[in-house]
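R.M. (postdoc): so does anyone remember the format we settled on? I'll just put the structure tokens first.
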């Protein structure tokens, strides 16, 4: 990290975020009964809304709401079920103008309903390939879009992940997806990329991607990193999902130092503190207090 972060506006409907000047904290809200990280603790509506408000109070810039688990081997969820989980939560948070809402889905119908309810970002782990109508929805709403790399599907991705060169393969794929969406009419300023830590990757694949994270800066769009509580941290530390905060913060600090712009996390307060320290050391905090 050279302490000279540059402006990198990210257009998300009527919001223009600038994670180039200050990294953003994206708080994870799993409205599912089978999340790997919290075991469905926020599946009920009131608990989900309460946890979102807590993350906002702790300094989350973005709340990423998902109604279908993408953990390895997770069962698919119908459109109707996913809508019933996420839309009431988005409606309940719509009055909180200080936070941006992201919908974590691969289904265009869910994304459209979420955007109608006030979401500004679509976080698609398939990079808009599972449901190609997602591109039309994002274009119609001028939504921000996070394009993530995943090998296979959540049901198959961890069976036997293989790459010729994981760093090059992921980089080329993300570049191709950025090019595909801009060719389809989205502006480059709407797009962000995510290397997909843990999505069809071994421990060594994840480490290689993090080690070379700065290479993705050449695409000149915001870089999102989500490694909070993931299983590779457990394999490195021997800790269970609920006891991986230290490992998560170490990965966060490394990612920010390498130029990550958005960090997707479960533990907002601790993650924001860690980012504050990293950016202060580099003298590019620009707004933390």
């Amino acid at each position: 990290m050279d302490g000279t972060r540059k402006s990198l506006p990210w257009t998300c409907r009527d919001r223009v975020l600038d994670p180039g000047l200050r990294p953003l904290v994206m708080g994870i809200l799993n409205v599912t009964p089978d999340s790997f990280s919290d075991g469905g603790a926020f599946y009920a509506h009131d608990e989900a809304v309460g946890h979102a408000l807590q993350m906002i109070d702790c300094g989350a810039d973005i709340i990423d709401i998902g109604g279908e688990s993408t953990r390895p081997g997770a069962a698919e969820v119908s459109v109707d079920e996913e809508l019933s989980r996420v839309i009431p939560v988005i409606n309940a948070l719509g009055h909180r103008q200080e936070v941006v809402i992201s919908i974590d889905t691969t289904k265009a119908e869910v994304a459209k309903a979420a955007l109608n309810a006030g979401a500004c970002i679509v976080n698609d782990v398939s990079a808009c390939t599972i449901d190609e109508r997602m591109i039309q929805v994002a274009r119609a709403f001028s939504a921000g879009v996070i394009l993530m790399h995943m090998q296979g599907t959540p049901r198959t991705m961890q069976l036997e992940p293989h790459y010729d060169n994981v760093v090059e393969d992921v980089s080329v794929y993300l570049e191709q997806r950025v090019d595909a969406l801009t060719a389809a009419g989205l502006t480059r300023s709407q797009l962000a990329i995510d290397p997909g830590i843990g999505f069809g990757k071994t421990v060594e694949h994840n480490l290689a991607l993090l080690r070379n994270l700065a290479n993705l800066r050449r695409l000149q769009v915001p870089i999102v990193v989500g490694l909070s509580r993931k299983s590779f941290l457990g394999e490195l530390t021997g800790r269970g999902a609920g006891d991986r905060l230290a490992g998560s913060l170490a990965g966060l600090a490394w990612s920010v130092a390498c130029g990550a712009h958005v960090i997707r996390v479960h533990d907002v307060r601790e993650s924001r503190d860690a980012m504050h320290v990293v950016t202060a050391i580099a003298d590019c905090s620009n707004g933390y207090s």
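R.M.: ...and that's the designed sequence above, right after the tokens. Also worth knowing: The first strand starts at residue 10 and ends at 12. The chain has one domain: 10-281.
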